[in-house]
Design brief:
It is built from ten helices and ten strands. The protein is of the alpha/beta class. The protein folds into two domains: 235 residues, Alpha-Beta Barrel (TIM Barrel); 63 residues, Winged helix-like DNA-binding domain superfamily/Winged helix DNA-binding domain (Arc Repressor Mutant, subunit A, Orthogonal Bundle). The chain has an eight-stranded mixed β-sheet with strand order 1-2-3-4-5-6-7-8, covered by helices on one side. It binds iron/sulfur cluster. The site of iron/sulfur cluster has 9 residues, from loops.
Length: 306
Amino acid sequence: MGQYTYGPVRSRRLGLSLGLDIVPMKTCSFDCVYCQLGGGHRPLIERREYVPSEEVLRQAGEEIRSSGEPDFVTLGGSGEPTLNTAFGDIARKIAAAYSLPVALLTNGSLLWMPEVREACRHMDLVIPSLDACDEETFKAINRPHPSLNLAKIIDGLSQLRETFEGLIWLEVFLIKGINDSDRHCLAFKKLIERIRPDKVHLNTAVRPPAEPSVRVPSRERMEQICDILGPKAEIITPRHKNAGPGANISGEDIINILRRRPCTAREIAETCGTTENEVAEKLHNMVSDEKIVEITGEGESFFKIP
Ligand code: SF4
């Protein structure tokens, strides 16, 4: 794996996907509360060629030759790829050299810029995210660069649909108590009618988010939301395995949550979308192994890293 490539990884949506990381870690126009890269970075909207395109292309070629042809080459990774002024050019050169489809994972924040929509022309698939229907929720979830506003972003998404001939899969990240009410869902429905994506993908946290306060809607609620949004909508968050709802939660996930602040078992369970019982058993084992310590407070115990 090169400095600017990751994978190929198998993904449910894209099949075998070779990722290209074309901006440095946490170079992003948002600072989302659910970001898995951790929070607290300063959002920026300065566009430039953040990494050497020729080296990205060289590493991509090397990976394709050694690992075999992926189903998709995906621009995404550890920040917002449209901040790189060369993202369209990189996609064009990949498509020309290897005849592979190229996907763009974007937070959609810069699609109001004509040059960004123009560069999207070289993609086969654009997966933009849209997590809010009103300015207040947008600021609360995405914590954007101060020059950005939701109306501008929605305009950009609608305009992309007017000119872009490839597929658009709109991704909505749901957070319990923030954007999962019926009111929000009906507003999302209207926006979807305006943006006209080919699909709508509903997602939520499966790994520790930037903010431990991010709570996960139940599977049942996500299914209700899917019904409200109509036939284009589908849930992409993996269904928990039969071993129990917390089967995906690792000790490392718990450590990542506790690195930010001490939490109760209930808070960890809500962050991970699992049951308190499942988390309690893992916490008990981690306390025995001295990886974390338990502090008994008034009524509830807290866990923290020693
Ligand atoms: S848009 Fe993506 S990379 Fe940027 S802060 Fe949000 S989750 Fe993190």
